[in-house]
Amino acid sequence: MIPKLAKLDGRALWRTISHNWMLKLASIAFAVGLWGFVNLGAREAEMSLFVPLELRNLPPGLMITNPLTETASARLRGPRTILGTIDEGRQRIPLDLSNVGPGSTSFRIDAELLNLPRGVSVTRLSPVQVTLDVERVVERMLPVVTNLAGAVPAGFRVVESEIRPPSVSASGPSSVIGALRNIPTGPLHLAATSGNFEQSIVLERPADLVRLSPDRVVVRGRVEEILTTQDFRDVQIGVHNPPEQYRLRQRSADVTLRGPQRLMKQLHLSSQNVFVDLLGAAGQHAARVQAEVPEGVQVIEIRPAEVRVDVSASPGHKPRKEAPQR
């Protein structure tokens, strides 16, 4: 009797277990997962957080002049599940500047400024303090200057110039603006040629915190070549078309030239370009001293203007085209 009852009870138990077995298996899996989530999620963990500093309510007419760190780094500790809910992009550390004035002001950075969920603590925060240098904003009209001398090529000069506008508005920290005397332009580049020029030039900012209005000007003017006068002394006199026999009473001359500085610096006079022409000359006579010079150079004076020449003509003599002086 007893074995029969046991057999019946075993069948009933199996039917009970196998009834809706998929639902029962899912329930068991859910329970195991929930247990793991609760127990593992409750474990302590750490994470790093970088939070921007947000400056608020700076009074009008003031500005911050010292460089500042833009973010604070925080090391957080708390349950892993709670740390996972923190949105780093929504975190800010606000600093209220409504009561600051000119001078140096310090703000302490502490964990209370962070918007963290309950159960999360801050184990490390850097920096723990920020210092602000605050100055008044001032505005002045300052003249514009440009380095024309450095922009002109060698041998040229600026004879007329103007800057439009001649002055600009500069605004910024009072300590910087108060020390300024003028606003320089950027580099000006002029061609090596005479004539008018006009260029639009960006102004150079004296400091990063200084604002200029306008920030560029027009520089216009006129460039001309520098002319110089130079004496060449004791230049040997050459002879063009010399006869077979002749004699110069004076062998050298002084020559005064005027021309562009760039040409005069390179010019050298010799018997090749200071000469007398004896083509068809005969007997004693005065020959005019001539000078061949580059285009653009002017002969101001030759001393002496003439030299005495003795020519002994030979029968059937034909003048040679060129020969060295005797």
In short:
This protein is of the alpha+beta class and 326 residues long. It is 17% helix and 45% strand.
Structural features, described:
The protein has 326 residues and is an alpha+beta fold. It folds into 3 domains: 84 residues, RNA Polymerase Alpha Subunit, Chain A, domain 2 (Beta Complex); 88 residues, YbbR-like domain (RNA Polymerase Alpha Subunit, Chain A, domain 2, Beta Complex), CATH 2.170.120.40; 85 residues, RNA Polymerase Alpha Subunit, Chain A, domain 2, CATH 2.170.120. The chain is built from 6 helices and 22 strands. Strands 2, 5, 7, 9, 10 and 12 form a 6-stranded mixed beta sheet that branches. Strands 4-1-3-6 form a 4-stranded mixed beta sheet. It has a 3-stranded antiparallel beta sheet with strand order 8-13-11, with no helix packed on it. The protein starts with a helix and ends in a 14-residue tail after the last strand.
